[in-house]
Amino acid sequence: MGGLLVFQNAQLRVIQAQEAGFPAFYRVVWTRHVAEFSDLSPSERESCLQAVVMVEQVLREQLQPDKINLAALGNVVPHLHWHVIARFAWDTHFPAPVWAAALRPPNDEDIQRIARRCADVNRLMAARLS
Question: Quick one: DSSP state of residue 104?
Answer without folding.
Answer: S
